């Protein structure tokens, strides 16, 4: 069993333990990624680190949202590394609207991650390096592994974006993407929001699709309110096209992901397609697949009843010599 703060403890502990940890133990910085985009990162190494973990976060997320997760992993002896993917968080934007969820290709995300590994992670790594991925970060993480399979010991995918909801038939999805690109071209813009998407909205807890934890949800929204430059809106047509291309590659090349993998599916997920996760899990050569019944999409900021078993299992999995000791 690992020591985690309960939701009842979190408000006070965030102020007197997690924030001081962030201020004193975490190093932040940035490098210039492809096409001159600044990429922001953070990392920390406990005194007696035994393992290392690279976090690949989800869409709209910033490393500032991961303070509790990093604190928990740090206390378990992990050296922890995270970056803000280009186009979100504290990293640079590529369009004139900083709320656009935009990328030309997921290859750019992958290249940034590999640069981060070469410059920051590898020189400060302790023990074996595993990947901890959430949602969009899982697609990026899978592509990173395909590019450099020997760099990683294990991979954990939480609510992985191997498919997006609503799961439209391929011809319909392609047709909508074509219409979106045609609209953007006619408007004379590089890119614009996909149909129905808009700038950042602070959705009330009562109608959110991400978590059952009021405390963790409020902490997340407070961070974004206090630092508006990390706010991100909906996806652009180009991001969605790039995502579909990336997910197709992952499904096709899943059998090549040979390292031990642990997949967590959120049973009540309304963001990503759990059927795609099931397909990928069946094709991974060395995979343990766990469904967290009733959980919403954001397993790492979920209510204790969902988050605690996820954190316990992923820590045990990454620390074990083989996948066979995973709960």
What does this structure look like?
Keywords: Hydrolase. GO terms for molecular function: hydrolase activity. The model has no long low-confidence stretch (mean pLDDT 95). This protein has one domain: 3-Layer(aba) Sandwich (Rossmann fold), CATH 3.40.50. With 327 residues, the protein is an alpha/beta fold. The longest helix has 19 residues. An eight-stranded mixed β-sheet has the order 1-2-4-3-5-6-7-8, with helices on both faces.
What does this entry show, briefly?
It comes from Salinimonas marina. By secondary structure, this protein is α/β, with parallel strands linked by helices.
Q: Assign an overall shape.
A: globular
Proportion in helices: 40-55%
Give, in order, the helices and strands: HEEEHEHEHEHHHEHEH
- Unreliable sequence segments: none
Q: Find the structural class using helix and strand composition.
A: alpha/beta
Taking all Cα atoms into account, the compactness measure Rg is 19 Å
Order of strands across the widest beta sheet?
Answer: 1-2-4-3-5-6-7-8
Report how far the terminal alpha carbons are from each other: 11 Å
> Which sheet architecture does the biggest sheet show?
8 strands, mixed
Protein name: Alpha/beta fold hydrolase
Keywords: Hydrolase
GO molecular function, one term: hydrolase activity
InterPro entries: AB_hydrolase_fold, Hydrolase_4, MAG_DAG_Lipase
